[in-house]
Write the structure tokens for this entry.
Amino acid sequence: MNSQPETVPTIDDHSDVLIIGGGQAGLSAAYFLHRFGLAERYQLLDGAPGPGGAWQFRWPTLTLAAANRVHDLPGLGIVEALGADCDSFPAATAVPDYYRRYEHDFGLRIRRPVRVRSIQAEDPGFRATLTDGREITARLIVNATGTWDRPFIPYIPGAADFGGRQLHTHDYVGPDEFAGKRILVVGAGISAIQLLIEIARNAEGVQTFWCSRTEPEFNPKPFTPEQGRAAVARVEQRVRAGLPPRSVVSVTGLALTPTIAAARADGILQWRPMFTRITESGVCWDCGTGSPTAPPDHLDVDVIFWNTGFRSALDHLAPLHLRSAGGGITMTGRLATVVAADPRIQLLGYGPSASTIGANRAGREAARVVRDQLAELG
């Protein structure tokens, strides 16, 4: 899916605004730039082979109904685009179909597949170097590269010694490949829970185990808008302080759905704390301490399945030295989309705008900021 096409995409050598990333936030920003009369003053570079953002890479068994909410893009709802029964469609094909129609209907100026290797400040704006060596310039940057390209696996001693298979959510294709295996699922987010249940229920002869650093809280009550706003506010507070963002789910807990309740009743969700070391044949807790009160606890497994999240894909911005002493990028602006160290740069999908509904609001705000900045620049 990542192979380059035979034809090289046509790219403008210069644009007033460069949007990087063609997921929901990038499309939203482009849509509102059109609404604000700036349709000819931007170009959007997307590194994916086709429309759909990260959704096109999701596992085949993930349907729209099971996805963590695909929010409507501004101006065209997903049901309007795909039909009332779209919840049953695989997300990996439905969302690309939706985004493809969206891009076409609104005439968005998207070039793909084009990857940006680095961005450097160059008076009076920026120079972007692409992975094929081409260089282009822009006055303003709207970065919307998301997280899919940066799967995160924590460091655990002994990882290189493991004789079985290790994979990340990023690499999952379906439950059948784990038939007859002993698999340890690591993580406390919605993906870890969903995939643990899917594998346990569908892989023939599988034995599943589950652990994470903290045991997740399952909320039996409906999630309220007030709770959502409070959670987003806490994430926003972190990025305004220059701290690395946390996911919204990490501060809200997980909804106790009927599927999760049934899995708990069937003994699938038997949680263990995080192991302290990886061995050749599995994992262990308090390995080799020799303490009679804490004897080694070893678990033999064939597969370690890391559902430990993603980090923001911002390596191409490294030459700009945007990170603060706190380890994150200090954000400012009405919706925390503006980089405090250089207001000509906006980050979408970073911090509070990482949710699907937050991406739309951030896209509109980014376009508004761009409009005002271009008016000042002339």
Remarks:
- Residues 1-6 have pLDDT under 50 and may be disordered.
- The helical segments are 24-35, 78-82, 91-105, 190-202, 225-240, 258-265, 356-377.
